[in-house]
Fold these 2 entries.
Entry 1:
Amino acid sequence: MLTAALILATPVALSACSGKNGAKRYSAGDETTLGNWKIKPASVEFSNSLGIGNNLSTTADEGTLYGIVKLTVTNTGEEDDFFAGMLEIEGELVIRLICDGEQYKASLTLNTEDDLISYKIAPGETKDGFLAFLVPSKAADAGEILLKISLGDKTVEYNLGK
């Protein structure tokens, strides 16, 4: 049985502007292009459990939650590619969830269908999925929640809450 205790789901509407670090800042629901990817984050939810398929779930350790960012990505390149990986390799996307200035890396889950980490996407394919970030419980109450994606010297940020 899949168990999920939803703590916060916050899509927002905010016009594109520049972030503190000069990155272009967008709202949840805005589609942008970075490298060979069209990226459209929808929302962030904080939960103490995460579904991993076949009616199974995993639970975060005490004092932590999963920050689950739902998004749609399209591979606009000419080869199969991974949207996000566990290793940060030059020339690949670097992705962070930022809650009140604290940055968190995406976590690999056992959900092989919807987790966008290490999921190979064919050219022209669009995939709806998520990235999960293990964060301290206090992150759910952050005044500012951003998804930051960088490729080389180009960075985009999406305001996902508050």
Entry 2:
Amino acid sequence: MITLLVPIHEYKEEYKEYIEKCHQSYKINNPTATQKLKFVCDDKVKSKIQGQLNNSDDEFIVNNTGKTGIFYQINYAVDFVDSDYFGIYEFDDMISDRYFSVAERYIKQNPDVSLFLPLIGEVIRQEKEDGKNIESFVRYANEFPWFKGVIEYPDLPESYKKLGVITTKMAEGYEGIQLSGAIIKKEDFLETKKLKTNLGIATMYEYMLRLTFLDKKVISIPKFMYIHRIAREGSYFENVKNTLTPEAIMKFFDLARKEYVFEDEREIENNLIP
């Protein structure tokens, strides 16, 4: 069983359509109800979502700590997950009809893997002249191990190439890995001290590097499983791009490449934070 965690910092009217599609995608692609979805939010947001979806309390993990950023929400929620694996599911995204079936097959075949990265289709919403919105495909994400492993790392073991294993060396040189839709083994997430929330936009990147450094296996699944909406106005990642220069953003990734060798989250000097 997999529990999908859907962190929500706040509720706005313009989020209603996204939340509805996110929830519908889960329900439609989980016909046997063997998988779980948990919105992670405070009581105020929970009441708004329940007012919209009329869903049960069982679909929520309530976090009233006051720390409701996406990475805090994930760290908080995992302690309440009762499945062996959990997925990161953003509320404005959707899963494909093969998400659960492919994930379960790979988990069964690869119980030693700590982090599975699905092939993601990234889309952007665009408004047409008649006022209607369309979703336009932009690119795929997480396919890089398949060509980097073969072309740039010829000495990589054949078993790694076949499985799409991501090594530390590969990951250090590529910041474009997308952890939306990722499936993570709960036991290893807790063992490796969760996410370091002080690394901003590079938080997920550092976690993946830390896993590989600790000899935990990370693989990319070459199956289209997840639809990720990019450039949504008001999203965390879009706000970062709008408020920080590319140089400042890269500074976070440079920090991540220094911090992943440390097991615990360390205090970062102010002059190193953009």
